[in-house]
């Protein structure tokens, strides 16, 4: 019953038989946590990520972070507003006639537009599939828009491949929309409905529409340097925020919308956010690379970055950003105030793990060392185990040794900890 990983429903598959089979795999995972090898890896890996994020398959519903005012603000300022006429012309009109829904999210998974069949829209509201809802994996579990954002590529999810029980009657196909100049993800285009949405032709249609939207964005740059999201108008919605923990590239949230930056722009924004007094071109060049960076190269990157920052000003001489909130600063505050469990929960992974920029590596190593040091100096078994169970703590002999030292003798995890510690010790020898 296993399907090629890129296809949710291969040609010739029986939707009813596939639904029954996947339903059994879903029930098994929810009851035992065991993943059947017949499940597509894109789904099994997403289930695990979602559960680690705290999603409950039986009880969770997508969060609703955007009220009407913030939603209106986000729609007005988001770069993808330019592409909505193209999406409506190529996809929405036909989707409405076919009884389907078309959704467009920002780079954080927040749905900005949900259009199509009116009756289906009313049904979808029961599972919080509506404008203003957060359909990232961290909020709504495995789903095509959220998983496409997590992986940075097109994704199909068929029925019971969704993690949330309430969403299993639905199927969806989604693909990221990227900024033409930098390749940064601006959001996701999604087509949602019944089993027919999981066919290969549907994903091809979504991809073609995405290509048309990206072409429209590219054309718009010829007439104006900024899209609707770059009008430099201040908004009272929320302070700018940077998220880099465990992420391949940074998520930058500014008033009204969210953008996923390219890796180079992620590095620049992080370095500037970590340097409140600003950095000169030379200092920024040294922090970005061990090689000498030509000043014109730095200036070109900063010029390309500015449109990604929306209304957030980038000052020069030296280069400086206004005060940003960030998950790095939040983690530092947790550590400073002794909130170890909160710190471990916030630490989704090292800072921009794909980056080799010297300045980023310094921030990454310092933060990891601070968290690890506080854990080793403490005696909270729950915080230690939460860290030890992560991919970046699983092979840490000192952490597991500390777990064994502070774990109560009555703990049900004592045999597992002892066995893992012996295994680590043998491996290191």
UniProtKB/TrEMBL annotation:
Pfam families: GAF. Residues 122-216 form the GAF domain. It comes from the Bacteria. This is GAF domain-containing protein. It comes from Microlunatus aurantiacus.
């Amino acid at each position: 019953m296993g399907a090629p990983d890129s296809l949710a429903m291969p040609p010739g598959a029986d939707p009813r038989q596939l639904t029954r089979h996947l339903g059994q795999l879903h029930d098994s995972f929810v009851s035992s946590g065991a993943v059947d090898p017949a499940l597509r890896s894109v789904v099994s890996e997403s289930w695990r990520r979602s559960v680690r994020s705290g999603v409950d398959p039986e009880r969770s519903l997508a969060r609703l972070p955007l009220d009407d005012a913030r939603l209106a603000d986000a729609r007005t300022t988001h770069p993808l507003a330019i592409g909505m006429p193209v999406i409506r012309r190529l996809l929405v009109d036909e989707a409405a006639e076919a009884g389907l829904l078309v959704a467009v999210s920002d780079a954080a998974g927040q749905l900005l537009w949900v259009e199509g069949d009116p009756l289906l829209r009313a049904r979808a509201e029961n599972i919080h599939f509506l404008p203003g809802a957060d359909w990232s994996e961290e909020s709504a579990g495995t789903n095509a828009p959220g998983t496409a954002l997590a992986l940075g590529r097109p994704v199909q999810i068929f029925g019971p491949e969704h993690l949330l029980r309430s969403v299993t009657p639905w199927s969806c196909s989604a693909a990221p929309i990227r900024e033409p100049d930098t390749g940064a993800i601006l959001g996701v285009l999604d087509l949602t409905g019944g089993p027919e949405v999981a066919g290969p032709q549907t994903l091809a249609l979504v991809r073609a529409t995405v290509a048309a939207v990206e072409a429209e964005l590219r054309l718009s740059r010829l007439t104006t340097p900024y899209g609707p999201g770059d009008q430099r108008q201040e908004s009272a919605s929320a302070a700018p925020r940077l998220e880099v923990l465990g992420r391949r590239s940074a998520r930058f949230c500014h008033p009204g919308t969210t953008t996923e930056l390219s890796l180079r722009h992620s590095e620049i924004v992080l370095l500037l956010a970590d340097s409140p007094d600003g950095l000169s071109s030379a200092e920024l060049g040294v922090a970005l690379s061990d090689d000498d960076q030509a000043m014109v190269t730095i200036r070109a990157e900063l010029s390309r970055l500015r449109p990604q920052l929306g209304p957030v000003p980038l000052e020069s001489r030296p280069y400086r950003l206004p005060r940003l909130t960030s998950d790095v600063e939040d983690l530092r505050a947790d550590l400073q105030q002794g909130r170890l469990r909160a710190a471990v929960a916030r630490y989704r992974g090292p800072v921009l793990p794909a980056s080799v920029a010297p300045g980023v590596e310094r921030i990454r190593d310092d933060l990891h060392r601070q968290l690890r040091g506080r854990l080793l100096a403490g005696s909270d078994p729950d915080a230690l185990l939460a860290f030890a169970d992560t991919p970046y703590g699983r092979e840490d002999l000192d952490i597991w040794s500390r777990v064994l030292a502070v774990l109560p003798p009555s703990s049900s995890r004592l045999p597992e900890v002892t066995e893992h510690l012996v295994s680590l010790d043998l491996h290191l020898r």
